[in-house]
Amino acid sequence: MVNNAGFGGYGAFELSTITQRQSMFDVNIFGLMNVIQEILPYFRSNNSGLIINVSTIGGLMTYPLYSIFHSTKWAVEGFSESLNYELKHLGIGVKNN
């Protein structure tokens, strides 16, 4: 299963609104988590599965004026790595790209 939904934003953090920040986290990290939670019972029943979470280069390095976007993508990287350790003994792999 490939998680590739997301959107970016550009601008100074101090000018962003809580609604803008919550919206980006809702899509880029919480949406990704929700999809995984829905597919996991199917993967568990088959004792196998592969989850690929697309985080972009934004999860590995940062650029000015993208602080909110980058923080969501770093969250995807950390979540993916941790979840891989949590699920690999069940035959379910988690990779990030």
Notes on the protein architecture:
The chain has 97 residues and is an alpha/beta fold. It has helices spanning 18-46, 67-87; strands at residues 2-3, 49-53, 92-96. β1 (2-3), α1 (18-46) and β2 (49-53) form a beta-alpha-beta unit. The model has no long low-confidence stretch (mean pLDDT 95). The protein has a three-stranded parallel β-sheet with strand order 1-2-3. It is 52% helix and 12% strand. The chain is elongated and about 45 Å long. It has a domain at 17-65 and 74-80. α1 runs parallel beside α2 (67-87). The protein contains two helices and three strands.
State the main characteristics.
alpha/beta; single chain; three-stranded parallel sheet; 97 residues; 3 strands
Structural class from helices and strands?
A: alpha/beta
In angstroms, what separates the terminal alpha carbons?
13 Å
Task: Calculate the mean pLDDT score and round it.
Answer: 95
Helix percentage range: 40-55%
SSE run: EHEHE
Computed Rg = 14 Å
Number of helices: 2
Beta fraction of the residues?
A: 5-15%
Give the CA-based shape.
Answer: elongated
Strand order of the largest sheet: 1-2-3
Unreliably modeled segments: none
Number of strands: 3
Largest sheet geometry: 3 strands, parallel
